[in-house]
Design goal:
Blueprint (H helix, E strand, L loop, with lengths): L1 H22 L10 H6 L6 H12 L2 H4 L1 H8 L6 H27 L4 H9 L2 H33 L6 H51 L2 H11 L23 H14 L4 H8 L4 H10 L8 H13 L11 H9 L2 H34 L10 H22 L1 H7 L3 H5 L3 H4 L10 H20 L10 H19 L9 H4 L27
């Protein structure tokens, strides 16, 4: 009976999710090119941008991984709150810069920006392939996360294999048709449920299991004090079973991720979908408030230490749901499951959308027959990317999970080429490309040989330092790029004090080939 109730609640909301995503197209007409599909026609206001970008940051990790990290390690999980909050502050400046640059030149993503900045269309294709390698694991992880949630809240009635397929089908069902706008609309439903369910759990779980926060926190400090300070449970050294997540790791990871998140392709998609630069600035001010919700699964993970002790490996990621299933009626379990599932669907939709956009715009458009059909090509790539992630979830789950180890650290290696190049004219193609090769090679070598962190420092930051050193050395020692364009055509700037409408909107209507030199 419990399984039927929880699964029915889940099914009703999944149908509503697809319907809401498709309704996002109402009044937009049947047409619309790649910009309308991929960045919402650059017309999303502050509310939609806020819920969309909050949705990207609040994924299934927030329900599963954050609780699991809290359960396994404790304090180190706070790096998530730290880097996201710092990233929003950096995004206050970077977001409007990228928005203005893309609007002025009719660009729809970071691969476009790189191709335009260095006048090399093929470079955009290279970055698209590299970014896909780093983003595809996120799709697989969201499929896995939603599958686990559905299987658990159905009390085992729905198998993992069917749950994985539901995750893929629901997301693909609306994102192919409605694009970024559909994701923004679904984010509204998701945020309402996330705020309501986590707010309820924050009070109900301590009351149900500990008779309130006082007894819970007293027991936590007395019996599990190791979890409340860095490096958390497991010790500071990576040797002999230690966590390795000490102060240096916390600082270096927060610093690296806060820089990386502002040029992450999914974040940039949110930037470019905004109606104005001012909407992005206001968004950066309000977004940190959403991070308060992250404390709830972290805290519940610590509560699970006393209620369901002894969870190991992947089981620890179910710490929150083991509390929920035991403490709540079936209909409430279903609602919590819906909130967690939507926390997978929204970011998964944006990941799929971004991969499709990058390939449709920067890879397939290099083939003459696809140059005029970028949107159709991008929609096909969305289905292909999602299907590939689903297939590998079934057949080789550890392949993409292993790749996910370098996703953020690998994406960080694009920082000089995407961000530094847009503010420093002197950076040459040879320098940026050489640094990228070195950075990716170093991070792969360190991660896959088990040397992350390196002496307590995040391996991605070590690789980025090597990346920058090579990029600067090659740039300063080599010849300048022969680029006759003026600075205004090449560099980005924050449009502070400018009227958003003063930006020339004509380039936004350019064809895919117009911005290629």
């Amino acid at each position: 009976m419990n399984a039927a109730v929880a699964t029915s609640v889940f099914a009703v909301f999944m149908v509503a999710t697809v319907a809401l995503g498709l309704l996002a197209l109402r009044g937009r007409g049947k047409g619309g090119g790649l910009a309308e599909w991929s960045v919402g026609g650059r017309s999303l206001g502050p509310v939609f941008i806020w819920v969309l970008m909050a949705g990207e940051g609040y994924t299934s990790f927030s329900y599963l991984g954050a609780a699991g990290w809290g359960y396994n390690y404790g304090a180190p999980v706070l790096y998530v709150v730290a880097y996201m909050s710092c990233g929003y502050a950096i995004g206050y400046v970077v977001g409007p810069m990228l928005w203005a640059y893309a609007r002025r030149h009719g660009l729809v993503g970071i691969t476009d920006m790189v191709a335009h900045r260095f006048c090399r269309p093929w470079l955009g294709a290279v970055v698209a392939v590299l970014a896909t390698v780093f983003l595809l694991p996120y799709i697989q992880l969201q499929i896995t996360g939603m599958g686990v949630v559905l299987s658990v809240i159905s009390y085992g009635a729905v198998s993992l294999n069917w749950a994985y397929f539901v995750a893929f089908a629901v997301t693909t069902g609306f994102v192919v048709v409605s694009g970024l706008r559909g994701s923004a609309w679904v984010s509204v439903l998701k945020d309402v449920l996330v705020i309501a369910t986590l707010g309820f759990l924050a009070f109900s779980v301590p009351l149900h299991y500990f008779d309130g926060y006082g007894p819970f926190l007293d027991r936590l400090v007395t019996e599990k004090g190791e979890w409340l300070t860095l490096p958390g449970h497991g010790g500071g050294s990576g040797d002999g079973g230690g966590s390795g997540f000490g102060e240096l790791w916390f600082i270096s990871t927060t610093f690296l991720n806060s820089l990386t998140v502002v040029i992450f392709p999914t974040t940039v998609a949110g930037y470019l979908g905004a109606r104005s630069a001012d909407a992005l600035r206001r968004n950066a001010v309000y977004l940190p408030a959403y991070n308060v919700l992250l404390f709830v699964p972290m805290l519940l993970g610590l509560a699970a230490l006393f209620v369901v002790p002894g969870l190991t490996g992947a089981e620890s990621n179910l710490a929150l749901f083991k509390l929920v299933v035991d403490a709540l009626p079936a209909w409430a379990v279903g609602l919590v499951g819906v909130a967690a599932a939507l926390s997978s669907i929204v970011p998964m939709a944006v990941f799929m959308l971004v991969i499709g956009t990058m390939w449709g715009r920067s890879v397939l458009s290099l083939v003459p027959r696809f140059a005029e059909r970028q949107k159709s090509a991008a929609q096909v790539v969305v289905v292909v990317a999602g299907s590939l992630a689903l297939l590998l979830t079934y057949t080789a789950p550890n392949t993409l999970v292993r790749l996910s180890l370098i996703s953020y650290e690998g994406m960080a290696q694009l920082l000089p080429m995407v961000l530094l190049a847009l503010v420093w004219r002197r950076l040459t193609f040879r320098g940026a490309f050489s640094g990228l090769i070195v950075g990716v090679a170093v991070v792969c070598a360190l991660v896959f040989t088990g040397n992350d962190p390196v002496g307590g420092v995040n391996a991605g930051l070590v690789a980025l330092a090597a990346n920058l050193a090579v990029a600067l050395a090659v740039t300063l020692a080599g010849p300048r790029d022969a680029d006759p364009r003026p600075d205004a055509e090449v560099l980005a700037h924050d449009p502070v004090g400018e009227e958003d409408e003063s930006l020339d909107a004509a380039p936004a209507a350019r064809s895919a080939s117009d911005h290629r030199v």
